[in-house]
Amino acid sequence: MKLLSFEANGADGARFGVLSANGTREYVIDLTNAAARFMPAGRSVPADAESLLRIGTSGLAAVRELVASVALPAESESGIHTLMKERIVYARDAIKFLPPVPRPGKIIMVGTNYRSHASEGKNQAGNLPAARAEKHEWPVSFSKFPSVMVGHDRPIVYPAHTKQLDYEAELCVIIGTKCKNVTEANALDVVAGYTIANDVSMRDLQFAEMRRGAIMMGKNLDTSSPIGPYFVTKDEIPEPHNLQISCRVNGETRQQDNTSNMIYSIPWLISYFSRMTLEPGDIISTGTTAGVGIFHEPPEDWLLKPGDVVEIEVEKIGCLTNKVISG
């Protein structure tokens, strides 16, 4: 299933839904309103992603059952219109996307996790600590804060405090089970699903911090973490290490790779980071590949500018699109 959090005209606050289709047209089923219409009295489904993740498999089963009962009328436009009037169904282009998990407890970012990206970083040895293209005892990692997240099709606001705004295409893992000290062999058991992130980076701030041994402001100015569009349940992606990942800016392909080329695998990362307790809804973003703007020659040609449109696509998940606007 492709789950999403969204806002819609006429609806109160954030909603939680499932992407569905009728022929070539895509719709979003509002799970709360659909449950009120189609589920027996006394039964319900989780009203948001965090509640669903806390409930676990029983919540997912209830959502699947509900979606099956809301089967969109195959031919009847009037039937679709009735569901829309009751705010059970929305046209996909009529909603405002929110991050799929709007308030994760932790957003854990992994740096230098593709050999191609590590190799292109070696050319910048004078600007930042040496990139490492081999596996070490621990990965480069840092955190992003939930307050800097934005959803699909929402603007990236160019910060006043940087002159080097950059993009990074990343596959994200959404944790579905509270866990600690997970083994690699069992790591995928705690995964609820996957989504996409754009690790927007303020390179001048980031590199200045890295020279002093830390990263925070260079990764955490407002709107620097687009995530979405969907939270895709793991049953639809049984093998996350063979997915095409790409980034386009204004239609030009900048990044193109496969998740099989990670240095640290997803099970390895989960096992490593579960040395601290991981909670349902926590996100681990697994790093980017070669082709970021700062390592292009000259970087000014590829670093982001107001008006640029960034599209990050991951196979089986979808395409996360955001436009850069002036601050």
Describe this structure in words.
This protein has helices at residues 31-38, 49-55, 57-69, 77-85, 115-121, 203-210, 266-273, and strands at residues 2-8, 15-22, 25-30, 89-91, 95-98, 107-111, 140-144, 149-150, 156-157, 165-166, 169-175, 191-198, 201-202, 225-233, 244-249, 252-258, 283-285, 309-314, 318-325. With 327 residues, the protein is an alpha+beta fold. It has 2 domains: 2-98, SH3 type barrels, CATH 2.30.30; 107-325, Alpha-Beta Complex (Fumarylacetoacetate hydrolase, domain 2). Strands 1, 2, 3, 4, 5, 6, 7, 8, 11, 12, 14 and 17 form a 12-stranded mixed sheet that branches. Strands 9-19-18-15-16 form a 5-stranded mixed sheet, with no helix packed on it. A two-stranded antiparallel sheet has the order 10-13. A hairpin with a 2-residue loop joins strand 2 (15-22) and strand 3 (25-30). Helix 1 packs across helix 3 (57-69). The radius of gyration is 20 Å and the shape is globular. It starts with a strand and ends with a strand. The mean pLDDT is 92.
Portion in strands? 25-35%
Number of DSSP helices?
Answer: 7
Contiguous uncertain segments of 5+ residues: none
Question: Under the CATH scheme, which class of the largest domain?
Answer: Alpha Beta
Count of β-strands: 19
What overall form do the CA principal axes indicate? globular
Q: Encode the helix/strand succession as letters.
A: EEEHHHHEEEHEEEEEEEHEEEHEEE
Average pLDDT score: 92
Find the structural class using helix and strand composition.
alpha+beta
Using only C-alpha atoms, the radius of gyration works out to 20 Å
The H-level CATH homologous superfamily of the largest domain, spelled out, is: Fumarylacetoacetase-like, C-terminal domain
Question: Which architecture of the largest domain does the CATH hierarchy give at level 2?
Answer: Alpha-Beta Complex
